[in-house]
Design a protein that fits this description.
- The protein is of the alpha+beta class.
- 26% of the residues lie in helices and 35% in strands.
- It is built from four helices and nine strands; from the N terminus they run ββααββαββββαβ.
- The strands form two sheets. It has a seven-stranded antiparallel β-sheet with strand order 2-3-4-8-7-6-5, with helices on both faces.
- The chain is globular and about 50 Å long.
- The model has no long low-confidence stretch (mean pLDDT 92).
Amino acid sequence: MPAFSSSTVRLKAPDDAVRLPVREPVDLAAWAVEAARERTDDERLVPALAEELHEAAADARTRGPVAALSYVPEPHRGELARIELSALLADDTYPTMTVDLLARYLTTITAISFRPPEAEYHDLPAGPSVRVRHAYVQDADRDGTGTILETCAYGIVPDEGWGLVLLTSWRAMARTDELCALTDDLARTVTIG
């Protein structure tokens, strides 16, 4: 397997996804308006969708993923889910990338964990992997009431020198099964080379 390079990692985008410009030098505001117009013919929806896509791209850029998508199957409802593919490189602390290492990373319980994460192991075309579902409470008030953010992630190890994390996150709990299935499909499209 080759050494990691963002140019060698591919993720097939679903039809209803907008690729976020996370590495390209673009004017995000102009890009967002153009991308919103490509998703809807209803000019009344363009400003709100453009604002949401702009925020999604700016937010994703802060993490520097290999690729990021905004999943927008119904433009009048805005972004349903965010999808990011990120690379993790082995270093002096963790000189070898393993599925177990990614499982520990993805199943870490935090102060905002809503429930314990669920992990299961898989073999994907890009390499061995772990799939982890997790949920978090965001923006909790004094009573601990907040917004639930659900995630479905795959930690994939194409090579002992590096790994990939495919992470889908959403707040629409009624669509959890659908979005986990989407993540499962996307994980099978990750290719190296």
